[in-house]
Amino acid sequence: MGDQDDSCLFDIILVNYNSTNYLLKCLDTVYDALGGRPAAIYIQDNHSQDCPEKILEQFPQIHLTLNDTNLGFAAAVNQAILKSTSPYIVLLNPDSLMVKGFFEAAIPYLSENPTVGIIGPRILDSDGSIQGSARSFPTPLTAFFGRKSLFTRLFPNNRITSANVLTSRCDGITPMEVDWVSGACMIVRRQAIDAVSLFDERFFMYWEDADWCRRMWNSGWKVVYFPLSEVMHYVGVSSDQLMIRSLFEFHKSVYLLFDKYNRPSPWLLKPLIVSGLFLRMVFVATSGCIHLWIGRVGTGRYVSQKPPVPAGFRRIRVLRMIARLNIGGPAIHVHLLTTGMNPQRFETLLVTGNISSQEGDMSYLFDSDENKPQVIPELQRDISPPLDIKAMIHIFQTLNRFKPDIVDTHTAKAGFSARFAVLVYNFLFRQHVHIVHTFHGHVFDGYFSRAKSGFFVWIERMIAKLTNVIIAISDTQRQELVEKYRIAPKEKVRTIELGFDLSPFLSCNDAKGRFRKNLGIDADTITVGIIGRLVPIKNHAMFLRTARLFLDTNPDIKIRFIIVGDGECRQELEKTCKAMRLSEQVIFWGWVRNIQEVYADLDILALTSLNEGTPFSIIEAMASSVPVIATLAGGVQDLLGYSNLPIPDKGFAVCNRGILCQKNDSTGFASGLKYLISEPEAIQQKRIQAAREFVSIRYSQKRLLQDIETLYLELMGQQQG
To answer: Is the link from the previous residue into 264 a cis peptide, with omega within 30 of 0?
Structure first.
C-alpha cells in the first residue's frame, strides 16, 4: 500500500458528503490536536453540492479527491487507505471536533500494545454527554434496545442495553477491550488492515465498522475502547440530508451483517428478520415524518418580553408546565418561579391548561405581568385520551418553537404529559432537554383504590427514569418518594422547600376586623377556619364531625367554624352540615382573593387532610401568628416540628410549632382544639413566635429562587455568578 514515511505516524481520512462547513471546523481542531506533528490528511468527497473546493482554499496541503458520484462511506475510505502510507490510519467523521491532546496518550499506548488493531476514543455528544460508541456485537435484540432506540430511552438502565452499550462500564481512564467501536472516530494499525483487508464495500453506510472489528478479532487483533483520547461528534449531519436513503441503507446493512455471520441461516429465520427490519424501518420513517411535520406546523415564533440580554450571551430557556392555575400552593409557586427568576440568566415560558368550573382561578396572579402564560385548553386534570393527544401535539409544537434547555413540570398530569412529550421530542429531534419534576403532593395515598394507586406508582417509577432531577418539597415527602414508594433513587430526589412572598401575612394585623365584620361575628367569638379546595382529599367531613363533637362537649364556648374555599364537594358538605345541625355554627364562605384578611381574624387554623405535600395554608397561618392544628399528613410534620413521639389514640401531640393529630380522628382533633383554646397565653405565644420565625426564614422567596437557579445552572454545567 505504498512506502512508509517514518516521519509521519498518522494518515487521517475523512469522507465528506455535503458537510463542508462542519469539515472546515473539524480540520481546525485536527491541526490543533496534532500540535505540529506531521500527518497526511485525505478527504474523499462523495459528490457534495456545498462547494467542497473551498477546502483547498483554507487547507491547500490536504489531499482532496472529488468523486463523480456518492460511493458510500466504506468505498470512499478504502479509496483513501490505498493512497496512504503511514503506520496508523485515523478515521474521523467530518461532523466531529478533535479534542486537544488526542494523540498524546494514544501514541505510547499503540506502541506498547502491538496486538491492538483498533482503538476507539471517547466520543462526546454536542452537549458533553458520552456516546455509547463502544458496544457488543449486535443481536436481534439490538434493534429494540440499541443506544438510540425508543425502548432504551424509556428504560435506560435495562439489562439488555447495558450489555450492548459498554461505555458505561469504563472508569473513564482505563482502556477496555470491547467487541467493536464506532467508525465515527477510530485509530487503526496498518498491519491489522493488511491482515484483514479493507472495509467490505457491500456496506454502503452503517455497520461497516462493526464488521471490520469482528474481522479484526477473528484474525487475532484486539479492539480497545480508549477513553484518554476524545472527540465531539454532531451525530448524523450527512445522513440527515437523505433520511429515506439513510434509513434504507441502515436496515440493509443490518441484514448484511446478520447474513454474513449467521450462515447457514435457518430458512425460516431470514423472512422473519427481513419482516422485522421492514417494520422497524417503517416505524422510524414515520417518526421522522412526525418530526418534519411538527417542525412545519410549529412555525410560530415565541417572542420574549424579558429585558434585553448582553451581546454574545444566551439565557437558559426554561419551559415550565402545570396542569392548571387553580387556587392553591402550586399556582403561587409557579407564578413566583416564572416571574422571579433572574431575567439576565433565564428566559421562562409558563404553559398551563384550563381549570374546571368548580375550581377557583389564580391566573389573576399574572394580570400585571407582560409575559403571560401560554394556555393549552386540552391540558386538563382529568384523563381524556382525545384531549390528551391534542394536548401532546400542542406541547410538541411549543417545544419546537421555544426550544427549551430545561423543562420543569409541576403536578401529576402535567408532569406525565410534558415528560413523555420531552422524551419523544428528544428522540425525534436528537435534543438533550433536561427534565425536572416537582412533587407538590402525590396521588399515591388517599385518592384512589389500592390497585389504581399501585398503577400510578408504577407509572411514576417509569417516567422518573426519564427525569434528571425530582424535587420533593419536604424531607418527609422525599423519604416517602425514595423509601416508601421507591419512585427514584435518593441521589435523583432533591429536597427544595417552598418559598413565598410572606410580607402580606407578616403584616396582616393591619386588616384585623374586616373579615369578622363581613361574617357578622363579634370579637369575643372564637373563629376556627379551614382553608382550601373542597375535595375529598382535604377531608372536610372530618372538620364537620370535629365541630359537632366540640360543640356537644363544650356548649358554653362561643365559637364559629369557617370553611373558606370551594370545590366539587360543596353541595354534599352543605347537606351534611344541615343534617348534623351545624348550619348556625358553620359558615361556608367560598374563595377570598385577599386571603391575608381571613388570617387576620382567625383564632385557629385547622387542616384535616388525608394527604398533603407542604400545605400553603399552614405556612400562611404561621406567618400571620395564627395557631395551627393539623392531621399527620405528608409534610405537615416538618412544618409543625413533630418530634416523632407517638400520637395517643383519640388524642393529640403538642409540637414545637403546632398541634398534631391522627388522620380521621375527630375525637383527638376536638381535644386538640380544646387544648389550644384553654392553653396559657404565654405558652401559646412562645409557640406562635417560633412558628412565625421558622417560616419567615425557611420559606422565603429569595431562598427558593436561589435554590432553583442553582439547580438549573448545575444541570447546564454552569456556575452561580
So the answer is: yes
